[in-house]
Amino acid sequence: MQISIHENIRQVIPNCRLGYLTISDVIVRGTPPALSQEFAQLQQEVAKVYNLEDLPKLPRVLAVRNMYKKLDFDPSRYRPASEALVRRVLQKKDLYYVNSAVDVNNYCSIKYLLPFGLYDLDQIAGNVVYRREQEGSYINIAGNMVSTDNKPFLTDDKGVFGNPTSDSRRTAVTLATRNILAVIYADESVNTAELSGILDFAGNMFVCYNCGKVTGKYII
C-alpha cells in the first residue's frame, strides 16, 4: 500500500504533508491501567497550560485551522480531531476510552495538537490517495451519514475512509484489528525532523500498549 496526495490538495496547499506508520501483529485490548494513568496525567497538564479562550490562537491550532480554511473546510463546524479532544479536556468532559490503540492515537493527537487518524489496515483496499472528494457520503464511526462534498479525505479502492475530523466505520480499529495504519495530518509549519520525531514517539506508544512492530514509517 502506498499513500499519495492528490493535485487538488497540492494546488491549494503546496507544502501539504502526511506522516504515517504501518504497525503489524498488534493485540488491541481494553484500555490498560498504565495508559489510563498516562492519559490522566496528560489531561492535567493540558488543563494547566491551555484555556478555551486562547486555544484557537495557539500557533499549532491556528496552523491546523488555516490548513482547513485553505481547503474550504470550516474548522468551527468541522473541528480538527486534535482541537475537539483538547476542548473536551478543558470543558471538563470525560474523554471516550475506546481501546488500547484508539486511546494511544487520541493521546498523541492531544500531546502534539495535530489531527491523527487510525485505521484497520486490513480493511483498506489498494493504494490510498488524500484528495478533495466530490459529491457523496459515508458512514462515520458514530454511525452517522456524513457528506463528502469537496472535503479532504483519504480514499482507497472502496471510497473514502478518513479525514482530519471524522473517520469511517468501515476502517475503524476494534479488538479484532491485527494491523493498523496511523496517519498524521500535518500542517505546513511542521518540518520533516519534527514530524519524524512525532512518528517515532507514536510508534513507540502503539507498540508499548498494543505489542506488534512498526513495519513502515513514511513522510510525504
The portion of residues assigned to helices is 25-40%
| Mean pLDDT reading | 95
CATH architecture: 3-Layer(bba) Sandwich
**Structural class computed from helices and strand pairing:** alpha+beta
Name the CATH superfamily classification.
Answer: Phenylalanyl-trna Synthetase, Chain B, domain 3
Query: Largest beta sheet: what is the strand line-up?
Result: 1-4-7-8
> What is the domain total for the residues?
1
Biggest β-sheet description: 4 strands, mixed
Radius of gyration: 16 Å
Query: How many distinct beta strands?
Result: 10
Q: What order do the SSEs take from the amino end to the carboxyl end, as H and E?
A: EHEHHHHEEEEEEEHE
Helices, by number, come to 6
Principal-axes shape call: globular
CATH topology: Phenylalanyl-tRNA Synthetase, Chain B, domain 3
Report the β-strand fraction as a percent range.
15-25%
CATH class: Alpha Beta
Protein name: B3/B4 tRNA-binding domain-containing protein
Domain B3/B4 tRNA-binding: 63-211
GO molecular function: phenylalanine-tRNA ligase activity; RNA binding
Organism: uncultured Sporomusa sp
What's the quick description here?
The protein is an alpha+beta fold and 220 residues long.
Describe this structure in words.
By secondary structure, the protein is an alpha+beta fold. The protein has one domain (3-219): Phenylalanyl-tRNA Synthetase, Chain B, domain 3 (3-Layer(bba) Sandwich). The chain is built from six helices and ten strands; from the N terminus they run E-H-E-H-H-H-H-E-E-E-E-E-E-E-H-E. The strands form three sheets. The chain has a four-stranded mixed β-sheet with strand order 1-4-7-8. A four-stranded antiparallel β-sheet has the order 3-9-2-10, with helices on one face. Helix 5 runs antiparallel to helix 6 (192-210). The model has no long low-confidence stretch (mean pLDDT 95).
